[in-house]
Amino acid sequence: MAGEQAHTKSVGEIRRHQLDLLKALGEDTPDNVVSFDTLETQHYCEQKAVFERAERPTEENRPERLLRAQEQHNQLVEASANTDEEYDVDDVWDDIEAGDVSLLYPPLVHEMVGMTLYARPTYLRFVDSHPTQLTLVRGVTKEGYLDQLFPNERFLLWCYGTLLDRIGFDVSDLSIRYLKYPQAKFDVVELSRAQMLVAVEDGDDISIQLDENATIHPNIRRHPLEYERDPDRGKQLRDYVSFWRDGGDPTGASHWKQCASCRFRPECDLVLAEGEQRR
Ligand code: SF4
Q1: pLDDT tens across 124-165, in order?
Q2: pLDDT averaged over the chain?
Q3: How far is CA 82 from CA 96, 99, 101, 104, 157, in A?
Q4: CATH of the domain at 34
Q5: Does residue 136 fall inside a structural domain?
Q6: Residues with C-beta less than 6 Å from any ligand 1 atom
Q7: Which of 56, 70, 81, 180 is the least crowded, having the fewest Cβ atoms under 10 Å away?
């Protein structure tokens, strides 16, 4: 069941508040801002989130798989974008107020426990100025990851839903989903086509017809999730954001397999040895 309340604010009010927050964000110190990507990592390891937050990513310190993901992401954005460089945040809100629009990486902001949450979902579709569909897209390094939606990914997806809910939109028709594709079989044309088809369709029952024989691309998996208000997840989100406000000692991953492939392993004093679990 989706959120039960209609807009708690008018779209004009939401727009004004969002633009004010974005303006303040430009003047804010990064220490007061929590990005949604950080929350996802924090879900299984605060220590790793702390390391990632402190790091200024460069081509030298990013692992190859993350550089590849970034490169693929850039190609998808380029192939999917149907707007020119002049399309700014005012245009985004003009289109939302006008009614029906599909947006690529629209910036969304929300204040919580004295911090600013910042998010840019891959696709966001509005119908009659209501958000109806939010899609996140991810390339994965192993085939086995295609069919799984991990707890941190579920949490992140829910966070996007609650963000739209909390900033005042009517989320009663909102559907949220992940699309996953294998990085090794990356094909920019096929993926951007599938993404755009998903972005213009409504509802969860979407069929991606790429050719006569297949209604869904064999290399792309959809993971729809129902958004509903969840006090436990809401508390979890507040606690996560409070961590960045208050500081304190981060907790580490709970299972040794998460440490096994962690790039911060050599410098981490919470690293788990093979077979270890943290309770
Ligand atoms: S080595 Fe383990 S505990 Fe340390 S940052 Fe990486 S995942 Fe977290």
Answers
A1: 999 999 999 898 988 888 888 888 899 999 999 999 999 999
A2: 83
A3: 16, 18, 12, 9, 25
A4: 3.90.320
A5: yes
A6: 45, 47-48, 51, 252-253, 258-259, 262, 264-265, 268, 270-271
A7: 56
